[in-house]
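Students often ask why inverse folding is considered easier than folding. One informal answer: many sequences map to the same fold, so there is more than one right answer. In these notes we will look at a single instance of the problem. The structure comes first.
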């Protein structure tokens, strides 16, 4: 069984039921999904990066997805990940489209070109890299380790819905 850690810094508690539903719909018996939540009710941390880093510090294995508190998982995300890993067992990260706006391509691994909810990465690939405490910190974070990694699979399919709960 594989483990997927979902790391969510929460400022909008009203979104949690919808996110929880998207997680439960996406479930698959071959995956254990662990949803890590840390709350920031006063919006003290830019993008929740400090809290996401704290959660990363507590995880030692499995796969990680930084799931913002306004992002829903697509129902087929775990099925797709399962198939990718069967076809490409050496995969260390998977990048997916987000709403057909942020496209999963190697050249988009740049600040402003990639969002937290697009990347599912092995915890050992992330290593000691952490999100900088700045706006667009997720872009800086992924630039720190993804461009060097060859075992990244890019999926041209929307598997997380960015900002869906703000609409």
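Output (designed amino acids):
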């Amino acid at each position: 069984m594989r483990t997927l850690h979902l790391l969510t810094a929460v400022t909008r508690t009203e979104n949690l039921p919808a996110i929880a539903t998207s997680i439960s719909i996406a479930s698959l018996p071959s995956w254990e999904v662990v949803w890590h939540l840390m709350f920031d009710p006063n919006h003290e941390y830019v993008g929740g990066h400090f809290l996401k880093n704290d959660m990363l510090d507590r995880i030692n294995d499995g796969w990680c997805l930084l799931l913002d508190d306004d992002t829903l998982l697509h129902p087929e995300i775990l099925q797709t990940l399962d198939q990718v890993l069967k076809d490409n067992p050496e995969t260390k990260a998977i990048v997916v489209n987000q709403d057909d706006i942020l496209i999963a391509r190697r050249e988009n691994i740049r600040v402003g070109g990639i969002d937290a909810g697009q990347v599912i990465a092995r915890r050992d690939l992330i290593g000691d890299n952490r999100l900088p405490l700045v706006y667009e910190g997720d872009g800086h974070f992924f630039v720190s380790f993804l461009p060097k990694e060859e075992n990244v699979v890019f999926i041209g399919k929307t598997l997380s819905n960015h900002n869906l709960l703000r609409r």
